[in-house]
Specification:
This protein is an all-alpha fold. It is 67% helix and 0% strand. It starts with a helix and ends with a helix.
């Protein structure tokens, strides 16, 4: 999770244990959401979902989100 979603050498921003737990859960939910989108796309194209790259899926989602929000990542 640290190297793909947050980037290398980046640590969690939260300082209290409760907020660290919240941030970890947020990362897990985003990971699950991206995997769900990847699975849906694979099924629609009659592909094996296990053959799709998570990194590429993450990049597609980031582009879509940042393009629509007009903000930089």
């Amino acid at each position: 999770m640290k190297t793909t979603q947050r980037g290398p050498k980046q640590v969690l921003r939260s300082r209290s244990p409760e907020l660290v737990a919240q941030e970890v859960w947020a990362h897990l939910l985003v990971h699950y959401a991206i995997r769900t989108l990847m699975h849906q796309a694979a099924v629609e194209q009659d592909l094996d979902p296990d053959r799709l790259s998570f990194i590429r899926g993450l990049r597609v989602v980031r582009r879509q989100v940042t393009d629509q929000a007009a903000i930089s990542p």
